Amino acid sequence: MSSYKGRITAKLVSNHYWCPALAWLKVHGPGIAWSPPHFTAEHARLIGYDDLIGSILRDAVEKLAQDCEITGIYREKRLWSSALRVSGSIDALVTCRDKNIIIEAKLRHPRRDDPAYVQAGVYMILAEHNDYRGVEAYIASPENIVKVNNTWIITALKEIRETHKTLSMNSPPPPKRPSITCRTCIYRRVCPYS
Ligand code: SF4
Question: Most Cβ neighbours (<10 Å): which of 8, 28, 61, 76?
Answer without folding.
Answer: 8
